[in-house]
Amino acid sequence: MDGITISAFSYYGLSKYLLSKKYDFLIVDKILSTINSVNTVSFTPFFPKTTIKLFNGYMIYDFLNIILNKNMFKKNFKEYILHHACSISAGCAAMIYNRTDIIMDFYKLEFTVPITNILWICHNYNIKNCNVTMLKILLLLTYSYYRIYYTLTLLYKYYNNNSNYLILFTTLSFCLLNINWYIKIIRIALK
C-alpha cells in the first residue's frame, strides 16, 4: 500500500472509531480536518512528497465522505467538492511534474483550518465568550493574509512564471473559493 491509501484508510478508521464513541458526525469531520491541516503545515517543509501523499489520502477520504453524506454538507456541497477536486489534482500534478515547491506554497493555506474549525464548533454550539472574539479576530487576520493576499500573490507568481494551465486553473479556483468563503466568514463574524 502507498501513503495515499494508508492515509485514506487511517482517516476512515479514525472516523469510525470516533463515531462509535458517539461523537457528532460534523464534530468528527472538524477533528479529522484539523488533524490533517496540522500534519500538513508541520511536515511539508521536511517531507514534502510524503505530506502530499498523506494530504491526498485525507482529501480522497473526505471527498468520498462528503459525497456519501451529501445531506450533511448540503449548504456547501459544491464548494467542498470543487475544493477537494482541486486539492487532489494539485497534489497529483505536483508529484507528476516534480513541483513540490508549489505544494509547499499551497499547504501554507492550511494554517487557517484549525481556527476555522474551532469557530465553526463555537458558532454551531452557541459558545460565546472573549476567547471566541479573539479567535474571530485571529481568523480574520490569518485568512486575510493566507487565503486572500497570499493566494493572489501565488496566482500572480505562477502567471508570470509561465506555469502550465493546470497550475493556473487550480490557483485561480482556490482564489475564487477563498474569496467566496471570506465573504461568508465576514457575514458570520458580524452576526
In words, what does this structure look like?
By secondary structure, this protein is an all-alpha fold. The protein has one domain. Helices cover 80% and strands 0% of the residues. Helix 4 packs antiparallel against helix 5 and helix 7 packs antiparallel against helix 8. The longest helix is centred in the C-terminal third of the chain and has 31 residues. The chain is globular. 26% of the residues are buried. The model has no long low-confidence stretch (mean pLDDT 90).
Radius of gyration: 17 Å
On the 0 to 100 scale, the average pLDDT is 90
Count of DSSP strands: 0
Which structural class do you get from the secondary structure elements? mainly alpha
What's the number of structural domains? 1
**What's the tally of helices?**
8
- Shape descriptor reads globular
Succession of helices and strands? HHHHHHHH
Q: How far is the first residue's CA from the last residue's CA? A: 47 Å
Q: Beta-sheet strand percentage?
A: under 5%
Contiguous low-pLDDT stretches (5 residues minimum) are none
The profile of the biggest β sheet is:
none
Q: Specify the helix fraction band.
A: over 70%
Give the gist of this structure:
The chain is mainly α and 191 residues long.
Write a concise keyword list for the protein shown above.
8 helices; mainly alpha; 191 residues
What topology does this entry show?
Layout: H1 3-20, H2 25-43, H3 48-68, H4 77-96, H5 100-106, H6 113-124, H7 130-160, H8 165-189
Helix pairs in contact: 1-2, 1-3, 2-3, 2-6, 3-4, 4-5, 4-8, 6-7, 7-8
